Amino acid sequence: MDMDNSMSGGPGLTTAGLDMSNYTVASDFLAALLDDTVLQQTDYAIARAFWYGIVIVIVLAGMVNWGQWGLLKLRSVTGNIASMMYTADS
Question: Which residue spans traverse the membrane (predicted)?
Fold first, then answer.
């Protein structure tokens, strides 16, 4: 926010130059204030990015789990081969 309390992305809504005692002008201003069309699009993009992030975290965790499982299997197989070779030499 800037020092004049307006959003840095645009001029923002202000009552400067509006006759707020006029019901029609006040009603139009409040309707514009409550219009959240832009916010809905922004919120949708943020929510989509959030869920893509969640999916990426789950996939990475699954890949790490799969890698650890494969390494454990590899160690057990090589351990069995080494133990069989050791008992065969005795």
Answer: 49-66
